[in-house]
């Protein structure tokens, strides 16, 4: 179907009304933000705002209010307001955004306070938001309270120019391999980690492959000590 009428540029799509996207950090053009490719699929004209959930005011619902009150009691009002940047309830999860200088104090309180008892850290995720100025790199910890059967996410943001934050290994030893993987793929430096080294990429690899500013192709791949035999000497399976 063709038309002689000029194409109308779609308006930038705002945050979904059922999401508390109070923090818009950028605008994405095209399906994956790729430009200059001569795209003819139609996705190249998509425009979408990039937003992060904003802070959620209390009451939070579920057991989230009990957890929030217990954290205030464990830390004290002054430390709580200095340590917690915002509290977010989104997609059925409670997330504490914690200042990196206070993450160890918060983690110890979450683990040791009888009303909290988040004894287990299930893993660490890294995220790269290039447009989130001075907060480009995020580390997200997933905590589980076996005692109370509750879950909690703790998120720490660091700038790309200074990607350092304290390691949680001394509080949650299970973060050992997860922090190494996050460092390997995203470049977040966990100060105090007993052995912060690459875990999947070769030791001499340059860059961090899961960052959004990393090249998507055309990267020469080399493995130390590896040799690819000529076609007539390769193993056959048929």
UniProtKB/TrEMBL annotation:
The keyword Cell membrane applies. GO terms for cellular component: plasma membrane. It is found in: Cell membrane. It comes from the Bacteria. Gene3D superfamilies: NADH:ubiquinone oxidoreductase, 30kDa subunit. It is an enzyme of class 7 (translocase). NCBIfam families: NuoC_fam (TIGR01961), PRK07785.1 (NF005856). The lineage of its organism: Bacteria, Bacillati, Actinomycetota, Actinomycetes, Mycobacteriales. This is NADH-quinone oxidoreductase subunit C. Its EC number is 7.1.1.-. NDH-1 shuttles electrons from NADH, via FMN and iron-sulfur (Fe-S) centers, to quinones in the respiratory chain. The immediate electron acceptor for the enzyme in this species is believed to be a menaquinone. Couples the redox reaction to proton translocation (for every two electrons transferred, four hydrogen ions are translocated across the cytoplasmic membrane), and thus conserves the redox energy in a proton gradient. NDH-1 is composed of 14 different subunits. Subunits NuoB, C, D, E, F, and G constitute the peripheral sector of the complex. It comes from Nocardia vermiculata. Belongs to the complex I 30 kDa subunit family. Residues 10-21 have a biased composition (Basic and acidic residues). Its main location: membrane.
């Amino acid at each position: 179907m063709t038309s002689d009428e000029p194409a109308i540029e779609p308006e930038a799509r705002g945050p979904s009304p059922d999401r508390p996207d109070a923090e818009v950090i950028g605008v994405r053009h095209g399906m994956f933000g790729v430009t200059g490719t001569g795209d003819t699929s139609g996705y190249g004209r998509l425009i979408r705002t990039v937003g992060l959930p904003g802070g959620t005011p209390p009451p939070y619902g579920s057991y989230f209010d009990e957890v929030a009150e217990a954290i205030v009691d464990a830390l004290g009002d002054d430390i709580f307001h200095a340590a917690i940047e915002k509290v977010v309830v989104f997609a059925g999860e409670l997330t504490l955004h914690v200042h990196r200088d206070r993450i160890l104090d918060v983690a110890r309180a979450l683990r040791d306070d009888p009303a909290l008892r988040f004894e287990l850290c299930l893993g660490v995720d890294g995220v790269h938001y290039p447009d989130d100025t001075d907060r480009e790199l995020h580390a997200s910890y997933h905590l589980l309270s076996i005692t109370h059967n509750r879950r909690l996410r703790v998120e720490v943001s660091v700038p790309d120019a200074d990607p350092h934050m304290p390691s949680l290994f001394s509080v949650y030893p299970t973060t050992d391999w997860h922090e190494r993987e996050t460092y390997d793929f995203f470049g977040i430096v966990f100060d105090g980690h007993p052995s912060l080294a690459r875990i999947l990429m070769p030791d001499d690899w340059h860059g961090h492959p899961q960052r959004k500013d990393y090249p998507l192709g055309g990267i020469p791949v080399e493995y130390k000590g590896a040799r690819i035999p000529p076609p007539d000497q390769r193993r056959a399976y048929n």
